[in-house]
Amino acid sequence: MLECIPTRKVEHTAGKINPAKACQPLGAMYAALGIHGCLPHSHGSQGCCAYHRMALTRHFRDPIMASSSSFTEGASVFGGAANLKASIKNVFKIYNPEIMAVHTTCLSETIGDDVPTIIKQSEVPEGKIVIHANTPSYVGSHVTGFSNMCKAMVSYLAESDGRAKKERVNILPGFVNPGDMREIKRLVRELGVEMTVFPDTSNVVDAPLTGRYEMYPEGGATVAEIRDSGNSKLTLALGAWSSEAAGALLQEKCGVPCVPLKIPIGLKATDEFIMALKDGFGVPVPRSLTIERGQVVDTLIDTHFHYQGKKVAVVGDPDLVIPLTEFLLTMGMVPAYVMTGTPGQRFESEIQQMLDEAGIKDGVAKAEGDLFELHKWVKDNPVDLLIGNTHCKYIARAEDVPLVRFGFPIFDRAVHYLMPVVGYRGCLRLIEQISNALLERRDRDCKDEDYELIL
Amino acid sequence: MDAYCSQPVQEALIDERQSSIVTKGKSKGHISCTSDSIAGAVSQRACVYCGARVVLNPVTDAAHLVHGPIGCAAYTWDIRGSLSSGPEMYRNSFSTDLGERDVIFGGERKLAACIDEIVAMHRPPAIFVYSTCVIGVIGDDIGSVCREASQRHGIDVIPVESTGFRSGNKIIGYRAAADALLKLIQPGEEAVKPTRKVNFLGEYNLGGEKWVVERYMRDIGVEVNVAFTGDSTVARLKQAPRACLNLVQCTGSMHYVARRMEEAFGIPYIDVNFFGADNTAESLRKIAEFYGEDAKNRAEALIGREMARIGPSLRKYREKLAGKRAAIYVGGAFKASAIIRQMKELGMEVVLTGTQTGKKEEYEKLDGMLSDGAVIIDDANPAEIEMFLREKKVDVMVGGVKERFLAYKLGVGFVDHNHDRKECLAGFDGAVNFAREIYRTACSPVWKHVKKGVKP
């Protein structure tokens, strides 16, 4: 990879080189893990299921359980109905989950399996539930898959009893780490608002080690909670790509108003999140949060000269990259290249608008890009800092640019998924990582006589 | 370890799976294996494409183009720890990234465009084009696209028939990769000039293992022509027919290639195994036997020297590890038997062994290596692994990425012997590294904290 980026001008329009996205079923599997007692089920070949489990396992460093319809040649010719029916029977018999969340793959979609009908014809034990989402891998990305599974939770489970809405907020947290979900819940608790968060992967994919193995750890939104989400007063859908569709469906189906927001990364997005709760429920903002916010502002002032004006390239999932870019602008940095692998023109226009407002002339925003292209940009016009997932480490090394790891997947560093980047505490962590990456670099590169104690 | 399980034990076993698990000294009859996994099982197996990809991916200067939607390329991008002494092309992930329209109207034109772009950009000596599930269903003729591209550009563009759903067993994928390799090494018009070199089949240079073995060979006067496929280049692979002997390490993936090369070029093959000190010594003697007296003397000298050098370290670890109970769950039986032997060298007891792709005769061989009461399991699912880890009071497990955290959750140590391993585990030094890895995890102080805690 190091010598594989041509220095001359090249045309790259066909296919992808070094993708900045994965496929839908991965996101669907991750979302399903956010339901308590749920076994995700991959309706396709065994390889898909193994790959998704492997990717999630490497990132979260926890066992990830999911079953597969184990397609063979026969299933691809005659359809996968028999495999899915057998799967439903076997899964409840052997693994006994509360709920089974089926997602499709490109194979079962291409042969045209009618999954909802097959589920209706299957033997589902009393009190158990099977839901499904259509997630062909030739559409969207892992983020779209996450969104589709969230939508399935609403369409299969959410109900409204028609009575007055409860003083409670539904939060759709988006495709974030369990550490972020935990922090979002803490913020809501600080405000004293009752909540239902779904999907919620905290205490599922970051379960504590007790010497026991729980196939279904205690975390996750329960089926009852998701069912009752139709009776909440308000939904906050965090992240347009991963949460908006489920929020809109909940509004349509159960009459719960939905406020679409950014995932609360950075000062501005966190403020908006807190204000939405304040306005929605008429609660005062507690002093504890004002103090937290004040500490972020204080830290920004204390450290601004470390990163002021530095050029940065950012790549990741759209719902994370949009608020992160906003925060980088808050910090006074210059986002030179902002990319996501996920399709959606809206990404480009939102980023472009932010850059325009900040008076940044030649920033580039691109949806559906790949890391080859990002690497070429960075090679042709160097940046001071790179922010992205583990795959960016090759670009970082080849172009000798510091890398702050952010997003999914992170395979080569520990503890990331436990440490929130959302909320005011997340701001501090981002400032810490960004400042320190640049300061480390300065220490590494300076002459002996410039090596200083105080920076 | 009085761990408790989330499921009653008897329910962890699917009726249909009973015949895939045997206990030495108790079970009657043979293990049932090589069948497809049951629908709905949480299997640790993968697919045909996965098998093909892991075999071919280490070819360092080829472009590996995955024809299908993005997923298959994304998940297999650079996950094999094969090292290269030169080109890094194989660390890139090329995908045709098929979208909905391509699936409806066919992906052949897009595939041709991607190949043209790769050639224009990099001009690699060869491009492997992998087919995936969708391609098998929509019927893209990748063979003819590759043939035309080959003629257009004058390089090898080789289709790999690795449609995922053909089987849940990686072996079929190994075969698809083998066929692609055989196509690549097919000599042209010129006559093959034989040499005294060996090919090293089924060696993927994980953690630089090929380089270690190559050093030993050089020491006994034998030169390695090329490895299939660790640290190989297209040009080196094309020289493969010139060898006088094939060494086969990973039997699952490479026996077929060895047999085909024997038929086509008259090259004999022998099975070797460089995992563990005893296996390494045995393999070196086998190879020296082929080369005659001088090589035999040099091999004995090397073995004596190396054994003396690593002896103290191995003894030190043996003292710490003797009596510890081990479980093994790996891809193929070749690896399993090598690990069993190493465990025995370290004075450990293997109480559970399983593989994803073992064959009946291989399992019989494994059975012969184990003591009574040990469990052998084919295509295990996590519930079964969990059950036996607890039941057999395992101290340390050897496996791959999907088993690692399962073991950890149960307070069991773990060593990776799969893609994610970064340590060289081959040869004499590898034997010490392996013992150190086992020691590091089995004797770490961290396990003491699993049971401690603050009282609620």
Automatic annotation (TrEMBL), chain A:
Function: This molybdenum-iron protein is part of the nitrogenase complex that catalyzes the key enzymatic reactions in nitrogen fixation.
Sequence similarity: Belongs to the NifD/NifK/NifE/NifN family.
PROSITE patterns: NITROGENASE_1_1, NITROGENASE_1_2
One example GO MF annotation: metal ion binding
Source taxonomy: Archaea, Methanobacteriati, Methanobacteriota, Stenosarchaea group, Methanomicrobia
Keyword line: ATP-binding, Iron, Iron-sulfur, Metal-binding, Nitrogen fixation, Nucleotide-binding, Oxidoreductase
Any one Gene Ontology cellular component term annotated for this protein: molybdenum-iron nitrogenase complex
UniProt keyword Oxidoreductase, yes or no: yes
E.C. code: 1.18.6.1
Catalysed reactions, as listed in the record: N2 + 8 reduced [2Fe-2S]-[ferredoxin] + 16 ATP + 16 H2O = H2 + 8 oxidized [2Fe-2S]-[ferredoxin] + 2 NH4(+) + 16 ADP + 16 phosphate + 6 H(+)
Name of this chain's protein: Nitrogenase molybdenum-iron protein beta chain
UniProt keyword Transcription, yes or no: no
Gene, per the UniProt record: nifK
Subunit structure: Tetramer of two alpha and two beta chains. Forms complex with the iron protein (nitrogenase component 2).
Top-level taxon: Archaea
InterPro entries for this protein: ChlB/BchB/BchZ, Nase/OxRdtase_comp1, Nase_comp1_CS, Nase_Mo-Fe_CF_bsu
Domain Nitrogenase/oxidoreductase component, residue spans: 23-438
Pfam families assigned: Oxidored_nitro (PF00148)
Organism: Methanocella conradii (strain DSM 24694 / JCM 17849 / CGMCC 1.5162 / HZ254)
Swiss-Prot/TrEMBL cofactor(s): [8Fe-7S] cluster
Note accompanying the cofactor annotation: Binds 1 [8Fe-7S] cluster per heterodimer.
TrEMBL record, chain B:
Protein name in UniProt: Nitrogenase iron-molybdenum cofactor biosynthesis protein NifE
Family of the protein in this entry: Belongs to the NifD/NifK/NifE/NifN family.
NCBIfam families from the UniProt entry: nifE
SUPFAM superfamilies, per database record: Helical backbone' metal receptor
Keyword Signal appears in the UniProt entry: no
Name of encoding gene: nifE
InterPro entries, per the entry: Nase/OxRdtase_comp1, Nase_comp1_CS, NifE, NifE-like
PROSITE patterns per record: NITROGENASE_1_1 (PS00699), NITROGENASE_1_2 (PS00090)
Annotated metabolic or biological route of this protein: Cofactor biosynthesis; Fe-Mo cofactor biosynthesis
Keyword Cell wall biogenesis/degradation listed: no
Species this protein is from: Methanocella conradii (strain DSM 24694 / JCM 17849 / CGMCC 1.5162 / HZ254)
Single Gene Ontology MF annotation: nitrogenase activity
UniProtKB keywords: Nitrogen fixation
One annotated GO biological process: protein-containing complex assembly
Role noted for this protein: This protein may play a role in the biosynthesis of the prosthetic group of nitrogenase (FeMo cofactor).
Annotated Nitrogenase/oxidoreductase component domain residues: 47-441
